[in-house]
Every structure is written in C-alpha cells, then in structure tokens.
Design brief:
Layout (H helix, E strand, L loop, with lengths): L4 E5 L3 H13 L3 E6 L2 H11 L3 E5 L8 H12 L3 E5 L4 H9 L5 E3 L4 H34 L3 E5 L5 E4 L1 H7 L3 H4 L13 H13 L2 E9 L5 E11 L7 E8 L1 H28 L4 H16 L3 E11 L5 E9 L9 E2 L4 H9 L3 E3 L20 E8 L2 E9 L9 H53 L4 E6 L5 E4 L1 H7 L3 H4 L4 H4 L2 H17 L3 E10 L2 E13 L5 E10 L1 H54 L7 H25 L7 E3 L1 H7 L1 H7 L4 E6 L7 E3 L1 H19 L4 E12 L1 H5 L10 E10 L6 H4 L17 H11 L3 E6 L5 E8 L22 E5 L3 H14 L2 E5 L2 H11 L3 E7 L7 H11 L5 E5 L3 H8 L6 E4 L4 H12 L2
Parallel strand pairs: 1-2, 1-3, 3-4, 4-5, 23-25, 29-30, 29-31, 31-32, 32-33
Antiparallel strand pairs: 6-7, 6-10, 8-9, 9-10, 11-12, 11-16, 12-13, 14-15, 15-16, 17-18, 17-21, 19-20, 20-21, 22-24, 25-26, 26-28, 27-28
C-alpha cells in the first residue's frame, strides 16, 4: 500500500463504501469519508489528505462545488469531481474551482487510478513551479552576477541590483532606458548589430564595453538568450560578468608566462614518446622551435665501444644545416659537441666562425651563433643537444639558455624512459601473453556468469563487502558492479534484511560448507522479490575463507504462482464443500419429500372425509400443519442445494417488498429502525415470489440480529446496475454469470459487522455467530439466489456494519393470468392411471388419492415393472405418474420406453426436485406436466385435470 491519503465526499453510502473498497484495493489509504460539504471542509482541514474525491451533487446543505472551492483555495488540496450527470450551469461553476479531474459514474478502476495519479502529479508540478518561481526571484535579486532583460528594441525591462550598482545607478533609474545609453559612442554600432543578431538567433554571447555613471569603462562578458512565449511579447534574458580586472591580470600573466608555457607544452610532448627514433626527432624539432631556429642536432653515446675500448658519441639526428650528417662521431673535447661532452656544462658561442674550437669544415662556415647543452642521466653526460642561428645578428640570450637547460633535463628524462621502455618490452612480452590468456579466461567466465539467469555475487570474507556482481544481479538490484564495489548489505538494504543476510553469511563462513537458503525476501527497485540462495566460502592457499560466493535464483513468480494456486485450491475446496453439502441437502430433501407425500396425502384424504365437528379433526389438522412445516424445511434444504421448487413468473421487487412491509416491520428488533429507498420504474425479473420473500425475510432478520440490543438502522434499497465481468467477479461464490442488466435489492445495517474470516463462512449451513439452532438462513439465501441465476455481494468490516446486495438478472416476461386454487375433491376421474415410483409409501397413498378421485390405480415399483405393465394395459391407461429418480431404470430411461410403446402417452412427471431441474433433463421428451413432491389430493386432481383436459 502506498502512502497516498484520499478523502471521499459522497452522500450515497453504498457508492462511498464501494469507492472505499476500490481505493483500498488499488493500494490507497482512505483517510476520511464525508457526506456533506461543511463536514468535508472540516475533515480536510484536520487531516490534510493528499486528494479529495468530491461528488458534485450533495443533497444536504453545501454542494460539492462550494466545498471544493474552499478546500482548493484555503487548503491547497487537489479535488477530483465525481458525477453521474450535470447540467451546463453546474459544469461551468465546477470549472471555476479548477478541479484536477472528473470521474464519471459508473467508472472502472483503471479510470479511477489514472485520474487520481494524474491529479496528484499535476498538483505536485504546480507546487514545484511556484517554489521555483520564488527561488528564481530571490536568486536573481540576491545574485552577485549581472542579470537584466530587454525587449526587441533594446529597451531595458528589468535589472538586478548587482548589475545596476556596477553602472552606478539604482535599478529603477535604469529600467525603461535603451541599452545604447550605457555603451561608449564607438561601441553603439556594435550594439545595433547585436540587436539584429538576437532577433534572428536564439542566443548570443561575447564581450562588450559599458560606460558607468562616473565615465569609467568596464568590460562585460555576456551570454543572452531570446525567449518567445505564445501570447506574450518576446524578451531577451541577459547574463553578464565584469571581467575588466581579470582581463588586465590575464594580459600581464600572458606576457610573463608565454615563454614558459611554450616550454612546458613542448616538453610535455616528449613524455609520451617511447620509440627512441621518434623521440629524438621530437626533441630536436621542439628545441629548435623553442628558440626560433631550424638548425640543430642531437648526439648520443653509442652502446658499442671503439676499437680502443672507448665510448663513442654519434649524431643521431640533424636538421637544417646539420641535415645529412647523421652518424657523424664526436671526439671528446673537440668541436662544440665534444667540448660539451667533456665539460658536462652548457656552452654558447656568439660567432662560430671566429671560435677557436671550431671544426675546420667548410660546411660550418655558414654558422653564426651556436649553443650546446648536455643531456645527462644522473651525473653522466649521455648526449649533447646543439642549436645554431645562421642570421648575422641573432644571439642566444640568458633566458633562452635557461629554457634550453631545463628542456635538456626533461629530454634526458624522456630518453631514459624510452630506453627503459625498450628494455622492458622483452620482459613484458611474456607477461602480456600470460595476461592476455588470463584476460581471455576471465572474459569467458564473465560471459558465462553474466548470461546465467541468476544473481551471482562475491564478497570479501573479512568485512563482507561486495567485490563482484553478475549482470542479472545488476538488473535486479538496479546498481552496477562499479557502484557496488566496497559496499556491504547495510549500504543497500533495510536494516532488518541486512541483519538477516549478514547472519547467513557468517554461518556459511564459519561452517566452511554450502548453505542453502530456500527463501530470502529482498527489497529491489522493482519491488519485493523472493530468492532461493546458495552460499559457499572460497578458501585461500592456507584453507582460510577469502571470499563468499552466492548464487540466488529469483523465485518470486514461482512463489506468487504457488500462492495463486493455494487461493484457487481454497476456493475450489469451498465450492466443492458447498456443492457436496448441496448434493447432500438435495438428496435428504428428495427422500424426505417422498415421506411427506404419504403424510400429506393421507392427511388430505382424511380431512376430506372428516366431518367438521369430528373430535379427531383437530389432531389431524395438527399433523397436516407439522407436515407442512416439514415441507417448508425441505424447501429450504432444496433452496440451499439450488434445486428448490421455483414457480417462475414475472416479478417486480418493489411490489414484493410493499406486500410484506408489515411483516418486515414485525420481524425486526424494536431497537432497529427500518428505512426504504426503492427505485422507481424498476425493471422486472423472473423468479419465485415465495422464494424471493424468503430471501428478503432472511436478510432483514440477519440485519436485525447484527444490531442486537442497541439502537440502529436497517435500510432496504432497490435499484438497477449494468454489471460487467469485473463487477460480477467480486460477488460471493458466483458462477460464471453473463454481463448485462441486473436488478438489485440491498439490505444495509449499522450493526457489529464482520471480519474477513467470518465473511468466508457466512453461507455455510448452520454456521452462526448467534445462539444455537440458527444458521440456515443465509445458506438458503445463497441457494435461492443461485437457483435464480443471480449473485450476492457482501461489504462488511468489524464495527462498521454490513451491506448485502442481491443481484437478479433483468428479464422481460409476459404477464400470466392468476389461477384460483380449489380445496375440494371431485370424484370425476375415469380410466386407469399407472403409478411408477420406487417408494412404497408414495405408491400406496397415491393409489388411495386416485381411487378417491374416481380413477383406477395401477402400481409399479420401478421402471422395468412400469414398462411391462404399460405394454399390457396401454389402451386402458389414460395417464402415467412417473417418478424422476429411481434405481435400476431412471425416470428418463423409463419415459423413453413408454414413448416407444405409445408415442402419444400422457406422462405426469413427479419429483422431490424443482421443475427447473426436471425441465433441464426432460425438456422436449414428451412430458405432459410436472408435479412437485410432496403433493396433496387437491394438487393431484389439478395436475390430472391439466393433463387430461378436464
């Protein structure tokens, strides 16, 4: 459940309750409920919900629009209107309150959830926008940066204090004046060009000189952006910084450091050169560029020795005037290179032609100023860097020589690095090959691990910090291996989970064996997941735990499927239990009805023949009353089994309720007040009036019992609803009913209510929370409703009362003329009637009834005997009384044999089950009529008259 708190304002209780259950089912918290406007405003101010669901039309006092306007304006709480209909004037008033959405009744849960989430998001966005605007205004006013705006013509629209004070003014002195007033005259043409540019492009940046009130010129660096908003004038937002002082300092530093910067940039390039030949070319090229010449060389000591065992220094690279002399050897102490080699000190010659140490080579006559610096490795001179000018007046000054000396030091280091690199190449070759092989193995293992559908992780054994996580683990935890490194469980999970994980890790390391954890709950960005984890320590060479390896399989879906299967099995068990009990109840009622046939039949015959003043008449009538009460009990048992005797006809629920209003009033406690809310023009249904009355009485009595000895109210309501599959699925023990129009009768009380466990048992036979001997009422209601192809919805919470809503499918049925029953018996029968029934008491009493009615009875104890008798006496038999359920041969099979003997045979079907049950099995098979057990002599006479056309 999330922590979004919602208040419901709805004056129809069932709608409010239904909405409450839907919201809770979606995971929201229902913070409060109100039925009128003033109460809604008071509760909203007290509990401050995140959102209010408000019915537009509230019957008592203030309507929803007035309440929403106050809640929105005074409490800044978003309101979503609920409405089934509204005229244009009402909608116009509603819009003024700026609601965050409308939900039309009836609505689906997806529509409800999406409207709520959009309203919450919009309200949060508006709050952020207001906060952002306040922060932005404070930031601008207090910023030390320079901020101003102007229009397309260059007129200043606003300016912050920092920018105004830089110019020597207050902000109000500047607003409304053109930009050109604050730039020097020579800059105004540039200002015009700027205004042209900013109108054709989205932004512009650069520097500009401005003129202060005192006449001082300051340099601003600016970046401006054009803002075009629909329905508003274009304006330019400008940001600037005073860079006058910075530019002055930068110029001084630039002049002072230009030379050193060039040196630094030149020498940095050497450090990345590891090939000796390439490095030497870079050294001479960069050194020559450093002093602005194109002539130079580099001598280096050769690894070989001369024939006399002396080291040799050889020119390795030469450019300009020295090009073509590569490989030339230097003699120690001879020439510029030899002299520097010998002394190990820099040497400058202003005119090489007149230098006493010059080489007597004609190629050297073009040289003028020359310079040489030693290249040293430690204290040893390993080379000489020489440069020359050919120009007459060029000289190497002190700064250049200092730069060359520093450059030579760095060049020598670069040469050492290159030599070390070359020496290390052979050694690194084998290491690289080994590392490459290791890398390939690791890549292979990583690919295998990352493609396994498990979270695989490794922790160090010391403090259980993560050192590795597979790709599946990254996806599950929403974190990369790089971000996970060095963290432990307490950094990633709630404390309770982290304690559990650490305990299992320590147990694994202590045992030194694999530990199997069948189920580990873990919080992830995707929600709560369940893992099946196996952990094992990885030991070092000394046999001590170094790492902890864990492999976790995500079993969430499997666990959820198991839970769903358990719920399904539990529902199946409940259904099977009710079906089993229904079969048992139906069987008992069927057999009991056969006994009642004998009792009521014989009693009926006796009462017909008894005189009204007979002393035994009253005891016989008491027997009849007892038998009828027993028949009522069997009808309840058949109703529970769904096979009750339903005389289906066109019913208007409002009319049924009106007829028994007085009976309902006397059936409830004196402490309970009964209220009616009946929908006008209620559609008709198809049903048994007696059974529907039984449903109403049982629900009213149940509500009265729930109120008990305290004061309370019971409301009885009717209405119509267009039920979809989702709505029907929420019904109690409902079969797969079709979608469509349903009429409902609803009984609501404010009694003790029920918890979830009690609600699962309320339709069990003889389950009761009251005194012993009660409990078949709701079970019978369930059976009657199922027999009418209806459904029951129950809303209840402990201490909050209960609501029972019974749904019946709407069905237009033509009206039938009512029949007036007759209590008299007339011996007007003629002909033979064959009775086929496996119960001897039924056969005997029916025989006496038939004889009393003037018919000749013929009895058969089962189907085969009945078929044989019918074959013999078919011409004399005018009608067959056939039991539906018999051993050896069922009533259905017997009927088939009778029809084959005589296709137009008249058959009156008898059963302890309902006419609907018989119709399902015998429809279209030639049954003339149906008679429900138990039956009286009058019932038998009426049915025979119907079959024989009397």
């Amino acid at each position: 459940m999330n922590d979004t708190r919602i208040m419901i304002v709805e004056d129809e209780r069932i709608v409010a309750k239904d909405l409450q259950f839907r919201l809770q089912g979606l995971g929201y918290q229902v913070a409060a409920m109100a039925s009128e406007g003033h109460d809604a405003i008071s509760k909203a101010g007290a509990i401050r919900p995140n959102l209010v669901l408000m019915d537009i039309r509230l019957e008592n006092g203030m309507d929803g629009i007035e309440a929403a306007e106050q809640i929105r304006s005074e409490l800044d709480i978003p309101v979503v209107f609920l409405t089934a209909y509204a005229d244009q004037a009402t909608l116009a008033r509603a819009k003024i309150t700026e609601p965050f959405g409308y939900i039309l009744k009836p609505f689906e849960e997806r529509e409800l959830q999406s409207t709520i989430e959009i309203a919450l998001y919009r309200h949060k966005a508006e709050q952020k926008l207001r906060d952002s605007e306040r922060r932005y205004r404070s930031l601008v006013d207090n910023s030390q940066g320079l901020i101003w705006t102007h229009d397309e013509s260059g007129k200043i629209l606003s300016i912050n204090p920092a920018a105004a004070h830089l110019l020597g003014y207050e902000p109000k002195e500047i607003v409304g004046r053109p930009l050109v007033e604050f730039v020097p005259a020579e800059q105004r043409a540039g200002m015009e060009r700027y205004l042209e540019r900013i109108l054709t492009q989205e932004s512009d940046d650069g520097v500009v000189e401005v003129l202060t009130r005192s006449g001082e010129k300051r340099v601003l660096q600016y970046r401006n952006a054009r803002h075009d908003e629909p329905g508003k004038k274009t304006f330019i937002l400008a940001h600037g910084a005073d860079v006058t002082d910075r530019l002055r300092v930068e110029k001084v530093l630039r002049d002072q450091n230009a030379y050193l910067t060039a040196l630094h940039e030149t020498t940095l390039g050497l450090m990345s050169r590891l090939d000796p030949e390439e490095l030497l070319e870079q050294i001479i090229a960069r050194a020559a560029a450093l002093v602005g010449t194109e002539h130079g060389y580099v001598f280096l000591l050769s690894p070989e020795h001369s024939d006399h065992g002396e080291q040799e220094m050889v020119m390795r690279v030469g450019i300009g005037a020295y090009n073509g002399f590569k490989g030339t050897k230097a003699n120690l102490g001879v020439g510029l290179a030899g002299t520097v080699w010998q002394s190990g000190e820099p040497l400058v010659v202003d005119d090489y032609r007149n230098w006493s140490g010059r080489l007597a080579l004609s190629s050297r006559d073009i040289l003028r100023a020359v310079a040489g610096v030693p290249l040293k490795s430690g204290a040893q001179t390993v080379g000489v860097l020489g440069l020359a000018y050919l120009e007459q007046d060029r000289r190497f000054d002190k700064a250049e020589m200092q730069a060359l000396a520093r450059f030579a030091e760095l060049a020598a280091i670069a040469l050492d690095n290159a030599r070390l690199y070359q020496a290390a190449q052979s050694e690194l070759g084998e290491r690289k090959r080994a590392q490459e092989q290791m890398r390939r193995s690791e890549t292979f293992l990583t690919a295998v691990v990352d493609n396994l559908p498990y979270m695989i992780f490794v922790k160090d054994a010391q403090d259980l910090r993560f050192v590795r996580l597979s790709r599946s683990g990254e996806d599950m935890l929403g974190i990369t291996t790089g971000a996970l490194l060095g963290k432990n469980d307490y950094d990633l999970f709630p404390t309770e989970e982290a304690v559990f994980f650490e305990k299992k890790d320590r147990e694994t390391l202590a045992s030194g064996k694999l530990v199997d954890i069948p189920e580990e709950p873990i919080e992830t960005p995707g929600g709560l997941r369940y893992l099946h984890t196996k952990k094992i320590p990885i030991l070092d060479a000394d046999g001590q735990p170094k790492y902890l390896l864990g492999i976790s399989e995500d079993i969430t879906e499997r666990k959820l499927e198991e839970e769903r299967q358990k719920v399904f099995e539990r529902k199946m068990q409940e259904t099977q239990k009710l079906e089993s009990l229904g079969v048992l109840a139906g069987g008992i009622a069927h057999d009991f009805n056969n006994l009642l046939v004998s009792i009521l039949g014989n009693v009926g015959l006796v009462l017909v023949d008894l005189e009204s003043n007979s002393p035994v008449r009253e005891p016989v009538e008491q027997i009849k009353v007892a038998a009828q009460r027993a028949a009522d009990l069997t009808r309840q048992m058949l109703a529970y089994s769904g096979k009750g005797r339903f005389v289906m006809q066109r019913i208007n629920l409002n009319s049924v309720i009106t007829e028994i209003t007085q009976l309902l009033h006397v059936s409830i406690s004196k402490n309970a007040q009964l209220k009616f809310n009946l929908m006008q023009n209620l559609p008709p249904i198809e049903g048994d009036v007696t059974q529907v009355r039984q449903v109403l009485m049982n629900l009213i009595v149940n509500a009265s019992d729930a109120i008990g000895d305290r004061q309370g109210a019971i409301s009885l309501s009717t209405g119509a609803v267009n039920a979809d599959r989702e709505y029907l699925a929420g019904s109690f023990m409902v079969p797969d009913l079709p979608e469509g129009a349903y009429v409902f009768v609803e009984v609501a009380d404010d009694g003790v209510g029920m918890d979830r466990e009690t609600q699962t048992k309320i339709f069990d036979p003889f389950f009761t929370t009251k005194f012993t001997g009660r409990g078949l009422g709701l079970a019978a209601v369930l059976g009657i409703v199922r027999g009418h192809a209806g459904a029951i919805k129950v809303y209840s919470e402990s201490g909050q009362g209960s609501v029972f809503r019974v749904l019946f499918p709407v069905k237009e049925i033509p009206r039938e003329a009512e029949k007036t029953p007759s209590d008299s018996l007339q011996a007007k029968g003629n002909g033979t009637v064959l009775v086929i029934d496996d119960e001897e008491v039924v056969r005997n009493v029916t025989k006496r009834m038939l004889a009393r009615l003037g018919y000749t009875p013929l009895l058969a104890e089962d189907g085969p005997a009945g078929v044989e008798m019918y074959q013999k006496f078919k011409d004399a038999i005018v009608c067959v009384l056939l039991d539906m359920t018999m051993p050896r041969m069922s009533g259905e099979e017997t009927l088939g044999h009778l029809k084959r003997i005589k296709p137009d045979a008249r058959v009156l079907l008898m059963s302890g089950y309902s006419e609907q049950e018989a119709g399902n099995r015998f429809n279209g098979k030639g049954v003339s009529a149906f008679m429900q057990k138990p039956y009286t002599p009058q019932d038998l006479q009426e049915k025979l008259d119907e079959v024989l056309g009397h």
